[in-house]
Amino acid sequence: MLDIAEEANVSRATVFNQFGSKHLVLDAITALSLAAYRDLLAAALADETNSTADILRRLFAAMSRGLERNRALYREVFTEIRKVSMGLDGAGTSPGLREQAFDMLVRIFARGQKRGDIGRDQSAEVLATAFDSLLSGAVTQWLHAPQKSALGPLLASLVEVFLNGAAAQS
Asked: Is residue 9 in a domain?
């Protein structure tokens, strides 16, 4: 809290008055991140012309740009953001935003299945869970990797693994 106060050039009491606790600061950071993700998903849902695969590719590209710009911040708080967004650390606005974002992701996959450009072997919920897990795992690994490789190419490759599968074609 003191670091935040110093960086914002305000008193520690001001930070406490605004947020009340360290948990609520993390919730505010998480809420901003989830709101940005939700907005990306809303734009993806509004796109009625591109294929679901292209929408997912653009979604991963947009996510990587935002994360790369704020790597230092996310490196410090990403694990906490995941806990807060899942509602594991108490109340706040983040769990509701995460639920909204996940619902939008499910809707993207359901629409893709309805269009016929996403397979129906798995439910839209299972596909959304796999996609969300792939994104979260890749970001966590990238944030803590010793090298400074770009996230964009990694996510671009991973979305292709997701869309095409990893099984060898016979």
From this structure: no
Residue 88 in any domain: the answer is yes
Which residue matches tokens 């110093």?
6
Alpha helical stretches, state H, the chain: 2-8, 12-19, 22-46, 52-69, 71-85, 94-115, 124-144, 151-164
Helical pair 52-69 and 71-85, crossing angle rounded to 10 deg: 120
Residue 169 lies in a domain: no
Provide the 3-class DSSP secondary structure of residue 10.
coil
Q: What is the pLDDT of residues 16-57, one digit of tens each?
A: 777 777 777 777 777 888 888 899 999 999 999 999 999 999
Q: How far is CA 2 from CA 18, 21, 89, 111, 141, in A?
A: 13, 12, 21, 47, 29
Number of independent structural domains in the chain: 1
Q: What is the pLDDT of residue 117?
A: 93
CATH number where 89 lies:
1.10.357.10
Flag whether the pTM goes above 0.90: no
Q: Which residues, 6+ apart, have CB-to-CB distance to 99 below 8 Å?
A: none
Residue 10 belongs to some domain of the structure = no
pLDDT digits (tens, 9 = 90+) for 77-132: 777 766 666 665 566 777 788 889 999 999 999 999 999 999 999 999 999 999 99
**In terms of residue numbers, what domain contains 40?**
21-164
